[in-house]
Amino acid sequence: MLADYVDGGGGVVVAVFSFYNPTHSLGLDGRISSANYLPFTQPGGQTGGNGLTMVIDDAQHPIMAGVTTFNGGTSSYSHALAMQTGSTLVAS
Fold first, then answer.
1. Can you tell me the distance from the alpha carbon of 15 to that of 79, in angstroms, rounded to the nearest whole number?
2. How far is CA 82 from CA 2, 5, 44, in A?
3. CB 6 within 8 A of CB 38
4. Segments in the chain below pLDDT 70
């Protein structure tokens, strides 16, 4: 269903817990995963951190307009991801 939404012009934000599903090994499945809609590989588990801060990789990208900092605080979680060919890293 998410891939159909994207095909229709919609945008999807994929966050750290989007990958969690207690009944599957992958939280996201269907064409959104199998047809390379995601800009990165699907990770295994997430890791916790304390106060992870954002690194802006492309400050000129429209999605970063007005964003200068971000700190996840004590609830910081992240994944080690690999970018898919053709994807652009905006912030990490």
1. 10
2. 21, 24, 12
3. no
4. 19-27, 42-51
CB 31 within 8 Å of CB 37: yes
Q: Say if CB 40 and CB 18 are below 8 A apart.
A: no
Using a 10 angstrom Cβ sphere, with 0-12 exposed, 13-18 middle and 19 or more buried, the burial of residue 1 is exposed
Query: 36, 50, 45: which is closest to 86 by C-alpha?
Result: 36
Q: Which residues contact 31 (CB under 8 A, 6 or more apart)?
A: 2, 3, 4, 37
What pLDDT is stored for residue 5 in this prediction? 92
pTM tops 0.85: no
